[in-house]
TrEMBL record:
PROSITE patterns, per the entry: DNAJ_2
UniProt xrefs under Pfam families: DnaJ
Region (Disordered): 1-25, 77-100
Species for this entry: Arenivirga flava
Domain J: 11-72
Protein name: J domain-containing protein
UniProt xrefs under SUPFAM superfamilies: Chaperone J-domain
Transmembrane spans: none
Amino acid sequence: MLVPDSPLSDSPYEVLGVPADADHDTLRRAHRRRLRETHPDTGGRADEFHAVQAAWDLIGTPEGRARYDRGRLAHADEPASWAPRARERRETRPQARSYGHPGGWMRQRYLELVREWAGRGADLDDPFDARIVQSAPRELRLLLADAIAEEATAAQIAELGIAYTAWHDVIVEQRGFSGGFAPGEDGLGPASATKLDHVVLGPSGLFAVASQDWGAPVKLKRGELIGEGLTHGETPFATLAQRAKALGRAARVRVSGLLIVVPDGASPEGVLDAGKHRGMAAALVQRPRLPHVLRIGVLGAPAIGGQELFEVRTRLQEAVRFVE
């Protein structure tokens, strides 16, 4: 079975708006209709237009469709799965120091809720099987998508080298926060713990990093993110800034910058300046650009060097607590 890029991805049949058993003529007419509807010259969106083209590339010929369907209908003993896998190291050079379990809390929440959704007594041999995931409610798919995003970001951070230290799934205590979880209210994912996905320290500064996959493109408007995948009232940068400030108070450190990391192609450019939030420089970053950004820093974010770097690391080690 072919696994889409994200648990939130539509199948090519969904993109074209036809059932999976549609005949070829129906498929061809749907393709032409969707091209007209999504073409930028007729008021459509470029990302949707490209998605229609990509869907047709997968299932537009009998041979291609057969290959896709063979995967889609794979036997249960060969399931496609978003289960976590051990990451293979691409290099032998020392990696960044890393603490915590990136994506762990989100995966645990997904496991709890997908079993509740399936119902008591349901047999879920692999709750991460792509067929189960794609039939689950969007709120559950969002949890898993964010877990995968956090794991992918952590893998990139690890390649920065020994000069960097990263803490993942860091719990933060905010003034006025009464505890518990409030789905969709905090602006950094559904049913999200009050946490920072990643805290990264290196010569370029100390960064609070959020890994997100909303399943749709996002863009900046007056320093905040907007997009179809966000729920009403979500303020991702404002929320990240609030949590970064809470960490700074607890550890007696100054956070240099804020980074929200999205999948490749999910924003208009690889790196977008989001201005300042609570005095911290902020940027929207596509994941492939993240290592470069963390090495050179963000405009307006103070670098850290020498003895100060050691002191900040020590304070963070003493203050950081992880989501359980």
